Amino acid sequence: MKQLLVYLFCSVFSFLCITNILAEEKWEVAASPPISENTQVCILCHRNYTPGIIEDWLKSRHSKISPEMALKMPPIERRISSEIIPDTLKSTVVGCYECHGLNASNHKDNFEHFGFRINVIVSPNDCKTCHPVEVDQYSASKKAHAVENLQQNPLYHTFGEAITGIKEIKDGKLISLNSSEHTKAETCYACHGTVVTVKGMKKIFSKMGDIDVPDLANWPNQGVGRINPDGSKGACTSCHPRHNFSIEVARKPYTCAQCHLEPDVPAFEVYKESKHGNIFLSKQHEWNWNNVPWRVGKDFQAPTCATCHNSLIATSDDKVIVSRTHDFGARLWVRLFGLIYSHPQPKVGATHIIKNKDGLPFPVTYDGESASEYLIDKNEQIQRQTEMKKICQGCHNTDWVNLHFVKLDSTIAETDTMCLSATRLLQKAWNEGLADPSNPFDETIEHLWIKQWFFYANSVRYASAMGGPDFATFKNGWWELTTNLHKMFELTQIKK
Amino acid sequence: MKQLLVYLFCSVFSFLCITNILAEEKWEVAASPPISENTQVCILCHRNYTPGIIEDWLKSRHSKISPEMALKMPPIERRISSEIIPDTLKSTVVGCYECHGLNASNHKDNFEHFGFRINVIVSPNDCKTCHPVEVDQYSASKKAHAVENLQQNPLYHTFGEAITGIKEIKDGKLISLNSSEHTKAETCYACHGTVVTVKGMKKIFSKMGDIDVPDLANWPNQGVGRINPDGSKGACTSCHPRHNFSIEVARKPYTCAQCHLEPDVPAFEVYKESKHGNIFLSKQHEWNWNNVPWRVGKDFQAPTCATCHNSLIATSDDKVIVSRTHDFGARLWVRLFGLIYSHPQPKVGATHIIKNKDGLPFPVTYDGESASEYLIDKNEQIQRQTEMKKICQGCHNTDWVNLHFVKLDSTIAETDTMCLSATRLLQKAWNEGLADPSNPFDETIEHLWIKQWFFYANSVRYASAMGGPDFATFKNGWWELTTNLHKMFELTQIKK
Amino acid sequence: MKQLLVYLFCSVFSFLCITNILAEEKWEVAASPPISENTQVCILCHRNYTPGIIEDWLKSRHSKISPEMALKMPPIERRISSEIIPDTLKSTVVGCYECHGLNASNHKDNFEHFGFRINVIVSPNDCKTCHPVEVDQYSASKKAHAVENLQQNPLYHTFGEAITGIKEIKDGKLISLNSSEHTKAETCYACHGTVVTVKGMKKIFSKMGDIDVPDLANWPNQGVGRINPDGSKGACTSCHPRHNFSIEVARKPYTCAQCHLEPDVPAFEVYKESKHGNIFLSKQHEWNWNNVPWRVGKDFQAPTCATCHNSLIATSDDKVIVSRTHDFGARLWVRLFGLIYSHPQPKVGATHIIKNKDGLPFPVTYDGESASEYLIDKNEQIQRQTEMKKICQGCHNTDWVNLHFVKLDSTIAETDTMCLSATRLLQKAWNEGLADPSNPFDETIEHLWIKQWFFYANSVRYASAMGGPDFATFKNGWWELTTNLHKMFELTQIKK
Questions:
Q1: Using the 8-state DSSP alphabet, how is residue B452 labeled?
Q2: What's this model's pTM, rounded to 2 decimal places?
Q3: Which pLDDT score is estimated for B16?
Q4: Which of B283, C15, C406, C429 could hold C434 in an S-S bridge, CB 3.0 to 4.6 Å?
Q5: Contact B206 A487 (CB under 8 A)
């Protein structure tokens, strides 16, 4: 009898513990699959040398489940998109060597490390082994081309240099030198990504003594358009940080908020002051951040960035509302981000191919004419807006949603007008010799012009799209659109 | 014996689960009351058409308790303030039809919808059925009059137009057109509220096919002073968002932070950098956000906006410290928000009736004289400050609290002086023809003047009231008050 | 049998409850030690008069454990650093009287209060009774000298007055009066601390009737360099707020974010947009905030301010990575905070003793030469950087960490150049009589110069150190460094 009671006690207790641990994610209650022998060797050393990442990984789904187990989930609940996993990877958890040992021949950063050949950088092409749909979608997106779009577009390149070039006073003149690679890496390229190259091998002194490692240039970096030593584009760790690779993190707006920040892209700040942000900030602790699919109302009570832009969203009885996409522009019809005015989304991720009627690599001319052949057409715009509206309609009625987007259209037109007025003033300054058009980014009236379309018009449009009253009004909104235009106007008057 | 053990196991387990679920809120452990037949029909369709709001409501208190049950709570713990609930609503949960079906004859937005007559907008007058005290308090407040105070005060109207009017360059001149209704709706009126009117009926194409719905103007909107199709003022959903209607959300500062943001009203940013904000941000996960009354120290360890401005606050043994109010100015004696200087709180919510000695609809003249007859007197000020101090004294000793408010008084006087200096410079510019006084809001020196009182003086005063060092100093504080005044001074010198 | 079952039920239940309560902190499961008789009397009244702080304290570790129990912990897990605790304090919990009754003879704020002699302010010297190592480290730090460094450095004093002095327009001139004590207390001294003095006794009317209390000047205040009525420096409550005195709060970045904010010290904003901030904001709810030592990867998955700057960090098997320090500069080799350029950390906390080659109390001359004799040397710099790198290497490999700091060094040099260019322009203005060098902080071109080194260069350096792309680029970063320099340049041209 006593044994029975002890047994009962233990059962109750351990059952409660297990249900608690597993509450957030619905995977099969089973013994964890084994850790591969290779990975065990990695861990043996690295638990001493970089203990933080071992512990981080131990909390990840990768450390608890094998691809084989993942494939037993119903398709709608799956986090992997390949049906064919290499035999060598199938039945162990996804550990150090399973990722860092992949596709060695493609990797210029592959090297011999205590008896193993490993890659420093795990690239999207490696992740593709289990997640091919996500990688293919991502690779075609603007994000994947983020650094090449900066480097290969002469105007954007000039803009970047104008801002981050070192300035010195020489002979009473203000001169601008080239930007350093270091500064580019931590300004524009911190978000856009660097081109990581391998210069050879080098010896470094580590806690393990002298070791030979690849000599990487433009590293470390986790920008979204990073070009990796295997030629692939992007860094999955931009949004799924190492070594936890969590869906939860990617779904939280703090992740997008690494880059999408005011003054140029105030997506996160606008979100925070929106009704959706209010609900997220107040109730997020009760939400199910790891469920796949992500069920509207049940798992979350207000959308985050991921909800509208990429997640697989379903009803509580698992009817799909929208499919998952890792092309973050796929549900967007208009590009609110003015260059220099808003315009239909580009057809392809490599936007540096765009040329407008003036021959400039901007998607719109100074006069406001779109470079239509490079931009999606009306039909595609309608189709994408319809997709987005499905998400809104998860909670809002049809009329509510329609009226919201009518308002957005009006705001797009008005803010474009406010930018056109700024361009007119700049052109006047150029025409009258008050400023020099050869570089449109390096004089005070040009700085004001940049602020008009790059900071203030964007702020108002984002605020309109998400319902952020402060960013529409006083904080980088209409207040600035108006007072900035007055300043530009005065510059064109005073100097005459 | 075995059965007994199984029974015991189940009891332990389910008891633990239930106590866990009910831990946050103390309502009677009982079966949920029924959902009305009307609401069941709503849910039948809307769980398919707008599943998010059904799930959201299912998590609400409204979905789990009937007014009858709510009335059984001890008065101090009640969330409803009416003792007389209509018989038809008493014994079911508060569902779709219970709210959207109320007071049909008052609602110009009432329409026939699949056999039911419902209102699009549930208004404060509808919520009043169970929450009359809250609605009456709110309806008298400045918040409830927020949009009419903007529209009916000619100066505020001019200010709004100056900012949000579209500007064009015509014949070398900068001209300002009228603001569009869309832009007003998402700038000033996003917080202040719109006047929602019904233009008739219209046919829309929805997921259910073509349906007839009311054709609403200035909708959607959730501003605090919204004027509803039934004539009532306000939107309870400004702070208790649909369809969860949570006390928790309203008590969290993220809710107030939809509107009370820098640069003009930096309440939330100042709070975040204050000691109170520090404690809130660090410990909020352990607090009881749903308890009524809200017990100082026990349920929360530092005040949020709601604590000081409206919640029912009690000791841990339920002695009332301050009563609940939904007039958010009721505990305020001074209006830190300068117009154009700080001043005693207005007597009534409809501030557009105020006229100062200069005949302008500002509560203070340019020279700093208050329009006393429209503002509360010294006695009322003392009474309100005493009420506020009771909350401070929940944690701080009398001397600490007194000294805090002495400091605030000093700061109010100093920042008013810094604004008066700005006005003196503006008057000089007006007198000397450097600027045109006919519209005081549309020239560069006037923009600087606005920043002085509307952005910087407010920031310092809020920072003084709540203890935010950065907003008092470099971030929109004394640094800006000073450097901005220098800029104004130079404008009055250069142009002479 | 039945009794056995009941007993079993109770055991299971209470064990689960206790483990739950104790889950976060590993102290011995034992009955709480007694509350001292003195403290019981305090509580008897104050649970009515200031109930919030009693409840707050009841949630603290101080209310649940005696110093005697604390000493039974293994040394690495201890939160107290004294081995010798006075007998009178050993065996009771740390209550009101145990702290407010200490070292009465040192305290000018000691007074008779209902039969007890107590101090208003519990000072670091009082906390030292149990926490001597922490207090000694802190007392030598820059933080502890924060207010005297402002007051005794004539340049900083002039800077403060220039900003916070009240400005009036007199006879067409802009004149600056002295800053008031109130304004200083809530601007500079809110973070830096006030000098709290005792002017005598005074009678105040409290809820207990008229009582006599010390008449304190410059109170309330919780700045880091506060000088207390017992002569000690600092306020432990800056980071461990009353009366919870929590490690959790101090470890969260919200605590540092009371002061370390943009525009001058944007540490928190940069952190939030960094990868570390992203992970913290997304996963903090799962971390163990109270464990000592703090185990990398296991207790936290990304560093907070405390991780890098002061906590005791260990591996999951309790190998120490870095020791705890309460001198928050102890792991820093370079002072990113430019005055007016970056420079090696000062040797001592009392930086007002520094004089550079120009005879000015800045650690660097206008031309960029460091006042080396007051600053740590290369060896000390290397040693401190090595210490910091150990923390980085908890997760990152050696090469990653080295490259990160190479980039930081480059940014320090570039931003110093951008500041030197600004100084050159200011010197030109001074030389040509366009500005008056007698006070370098009170003219428009001087304000721009201040922004260059105090706001923008600092922002870029912090962004480089922590990986914050927005603050390196558009938000107070290179964009502002560049456009601000253009404005300064134009001021030196126009006026000629």
A1: I
A2: 0.94
A3: 45
A4: C429
A5: no
